[in-house]
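Standup notes
- DV: blocked on the single-chain target, sequence here:
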Amino acid sequence: MGCISKGRMTMCGVIAASMLVVAAFAQETTDSKPETKRRGRLPAYYSKVVTAEQREQIYEIQEGYAAQIEKLRMQLDELYEQRESEIAGVLTSEQLKEIAAMAAAARARRAAGEPAEASEPAGDSSNAATAPSEAPATPPAKASPNRAGGTTPKQPSR
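- DV (later): unblocked, structure below
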């Protein structure tokens, strides 16, 4: 755990610097907003049935929880960043470079409006780099299984 090797230390430094930039930007943008009329968001379908007084009560309740929820969101963000840093720490610098290149290529494809390349299925793909690509033995079925165990016919293309 942590940043031990030179490559990992560099990656942790980049992550730490990014976190500081994001935190500074978030602080700057929240401080510069002018005070506006209180506005919450009603749960689904409430707007059609609540009175103006109930609406204000709901907004007050939401405001009462807002600080706690924001604090928890910040804690979650920190945990996600720690997790990603530890995961990146498992990889070699060459693997990190390869992942960065693939991510940049995917961003470029999205920017150009091209479909994203399919990613590998979840699970252990330790032999994915050395195993030859095999075509499926049988063509895909014309119907896909549904949750009830039956099949749902595929709709014709329009």
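- Follow-up: The beta strands are 143-145, 151-153.
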